[in-house]
């Protein structure tokens, strides 16, 4: 008998029929003799409808009240899924975030899970019940209802799996698993049977939006092995786990792309300490997420700082930096470039293999694709290319590293 | 500065526009220097929609899960009303039943308020905030979400007023107050400025459905004086309070009617102890609410037991009693009569005035209206009449006691 924690997203419980389907899937696991805890999100569309009502009443609804409002979405789902299980004759009980003992810290709408007191859940498991647990929410020490922000239900599932020492944690989504590249772009992309936490993290931050980084980070921190798989079929998915020796033989695990990127460069900066920091903190204050950061010195001895961001943020960034530019003196200026995209190669095998970057650049060069900025981490090489080239670039790099073929171990 | 507790029902918060209207009303009280706690119900229609979803998934949804599901309705309202107040610049915070410290006992969907720990509410009041409190819900000692059943939000308001020692408790509804009779039937019915708890209780159980009896009982027990008034205008309503000497000068406070009643009589019962109890417990087991109970002995020495109930329950009652009848021997039988209605005269002045029943019966008799069953309490006389006669009967009795005129003190 295994203890299985599953997470079903908003699409999976998006209608009463889908809720019945989720109940049937859970019943099957139960009938096979497993203990099951299913973490569920709000029914698809419910959260957006609540947000729309809030925005109609108030331009900037208070975050505390948003938590009170939005947490009702999951509370409705858990009751409905539990009722559907009862209809199938399965003993089950729902638990809200509070009842699941999920204790949180941090500011409203962006809660962090601090601890889990699984007393009530353990009691229900001991009574032989399936548990349907509300994702995305917890209780703050001061008694306030607290939501966990984007991807919060994944985080709940991983935290619950950790607290209950589950044997299996499955994150059920509308994709089959994690692929070597987006199969809509690269036809022969393969589903990876296994990927390390670090690779998953690099891919999450490089455009492979299967999960939010912080859920993966949480899983890594607490050693929760989880599987990303489809809620629509029974195919095995992708297991996300700690890295092990076999993994290193694969140089590149996958290729991620991120579109709609833009570059902003401040040119002609006197090369003095603190100038770069001023620029970055100015962008941070304007709440602009920057991705790549590159600094170098031009032939005239003046520095250039380049950053990339989502192209939607470019105007805001330019406006935010204007006051700084004028203080930098008359050599300084801003260059911007929209319409670029980012291509990332990720693999922990890079650490022990050389020549990866060269191979990647050669392949792109041979195809006449021009590379803009380059950044690297220990297990990632990322480049920017013209957005019009990004799909070709993905196919070329995918082929260059033979990602369509099963890796040899 | 007064502390005012208000209760707004589902109609009053039934749309975003109405929520804005409630917020404006609260702001006005606040601007006048009052502290305000508003207890709100779920937006009109929300609860029924949730019940429909539950019933589609399960013929008999578990009551525990119904509590989890339905309590989200009020949780949404409190957040939305609070956001609307913020938009008007009023400092406000929402509290769920749990956060309001409402501790309950009893079985799911039928919670009773056991105690209130107003710590969080007191904290918000001390910070100068208006509080928007979820009606209809509380937290059971075992950590379960608990709803209070029909009329639960009224009960919440009265309990909160008691716990916070409020100066004023206003139950805002879609009627202007409590009338001497239903103004749709008796055109010159008057709104009563004041009514005693006991009169209100007798009227609630006699068809004047302004409030559930148990809220009035709770108010009586804890001495909470409250006012029933309209949420649509600023007219003074009806104050429900402990009786005082002035009240006794009014013999009849009001006339209530209840339609769609039915009589069921078991005839030919050997006059032995326990027969009546067997009949009543049999009906109770079938969950049939009976109203009037009359027993007498016929000229043949056999007993007759008559009860009244809602006519919808008549078939169920007959079926439930069948096994008993056959055990009573061959003299026994069942008589039924549907299409009757009940007329009640209520007033604490009856205790010190004689001739009330005579006056009532004479007036009805003079109009040719036949009286069926009669029951009395210390402050009520109730009769059944043909349902076709009930409106005439109400007008006649209302006029006989001069209820259209201001009482002389």
Architecture overview:
The structure is a homodimer of 409-residue chains. The first copy, chain A, has 11 helices and 18 strands. With 409 residues, chain A is an alpha/beta fold. Chain A has 2 domains: 3-174, Acetylglutamate kinase-like (Carbamate kinase), CATH 3.40.1160.10; 255-400, VC0802-like. An 8-stranded mixed sheet of chain A has the order 3-6-2-1-9-11-12-10, with helices on both faces. A 6-stranded antiparallel sheet of chain A has the order 14-15-13-16-18-17. In chain A, strands 5-4-7-8 form a 4-stranded mixed sheet. The longest helix of chain A has 25 residues, at 63-87. The two termini of chain A are 32 Å apart.
CATH C-level category of the largest domain in chain A:
Alpha Beta
- Name the CATH homologous superfamily of the largest domain in chain A: Acetylglutamate kinase-like
Largest sheet of chain A: 8 strands, mixed
Total number of β-strand segments of chain A?
18
Uncertain runs of chain A are none
Q: Tell me, what's the shape of chain A?
A: globular
Q: What is the multimeric organization of the chains shown?
A: homodimer
CATH topology name of the largest domain in chain A, in short, is Carbamate kinase
Q: What's the CATH architecture name of the largest domain in chain A?
A: 3-Layer(aba) Sandwich
Strand content of chain A: 25-35%
Tally of domains of chain A: 2
Fraction in helix of chain A: 25-40%
Mean pLDDT of chain A: 93
N-to-C SSE string of chain A, H for helix and E for strand: EHEHHEEEHEEEHEEHHEEEHEEHEHEEH
What is the rounded distance between the termini of chain A?
Answer: 32 Å
Q: Most extensive interface, residues per chain?
A: A-B, 38 and 38 residues
Keywords (chains A, B): Amino-acid biosynthesis, ATP-binding, Kinase, Lysine biosynthesis, Nucleotide-binding, Repeat, Transferase
Enzyme class (chains A, B): transferase
Family (chains A, B): Belongs to the aspartokinase family.
Catalytic activity (chains A, B): L-aspartate + ATP = 4-phospho-L-aspartate + ADP
């Amino acid at each position: 008998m295994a203890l299985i924690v599953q997470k079903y997203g908003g699409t999976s419980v998006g209608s009463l029929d889908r809720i019945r389907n989720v109940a049937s899937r859970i019943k099957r696991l139960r009938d096979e003799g497993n203990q099951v805890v299913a973490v569920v999100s709000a029914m698809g569309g419910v959260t957006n409808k609540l947000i729309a009502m809030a925005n109609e009443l108030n331009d900037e609804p208070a975050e505390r009240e948003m938590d009170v409002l939005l947490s009702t979405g999951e509370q409705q789902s858990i009751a409905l899924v539990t009722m559907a299980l009862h209809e199938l004759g399965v003993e089950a009980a729902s638990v809200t975030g509070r009842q699941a003992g999920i204790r949180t810290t941090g500011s409203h709408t962006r809660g962090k899970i601090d601890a889990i007191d699984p007393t009530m859940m353990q009691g229900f498991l001991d009574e032989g019940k399936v548990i349907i647990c509300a994702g995305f929410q917890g209780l703050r020490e001061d008694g306030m209802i607290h939501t966990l922000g984007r991807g919060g239900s994944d985080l709940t599932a991983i935290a619950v799996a950790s607290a209950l020492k589950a044997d299996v944690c499955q994150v059920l989504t509308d994709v089959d698993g994690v692929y070597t590249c987006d199969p809509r772009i690269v036809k022969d992309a393969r589903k990876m049977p296994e990927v390390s936490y670090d690779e998953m993290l690099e891919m999450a931050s490089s455009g492979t939006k299967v999960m939010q980084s912080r859920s993966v980070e949480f899983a890594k921190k607490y050693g929760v092995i989880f599987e990303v798989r489809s809620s629509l079929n029974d195919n095995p998915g992708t297991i996300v786990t700690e890295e092990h020796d076999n993994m290193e033989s694969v140089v590149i695990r996958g290729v991620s792309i991120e579109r709609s990127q833009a570059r902003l460069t401040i040119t002609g900066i006197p090369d003095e300490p603190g100038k770069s920091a001023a620029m970055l903190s100015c962008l941070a204050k304007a709440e602009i997420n920057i991705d790549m950061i590159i600094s170098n010195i031009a032939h005239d001895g003046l520095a250039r700082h380049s950053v990339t961001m989502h192209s939607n943020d470019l105007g805001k960034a330019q406006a935010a930096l204007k006051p700084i530019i004028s203080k930098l003196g008359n050599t300084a200026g801003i260059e911007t470039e929209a319409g670029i995209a980012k291509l990332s190669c990720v693999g922990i095998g890079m650490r022990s293999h050389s020549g990866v970057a060269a191979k990647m650049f050669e392949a792109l060069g041979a195809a006449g694709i021009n590379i803009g900025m380059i950044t690297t981490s220990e297990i990632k090489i990322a480049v920017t290319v013209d957005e019009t080239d990004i799909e070709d670039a993905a196919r070329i790099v995918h082929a260059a590293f033979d990602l369509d073929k099963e890796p040899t171990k």
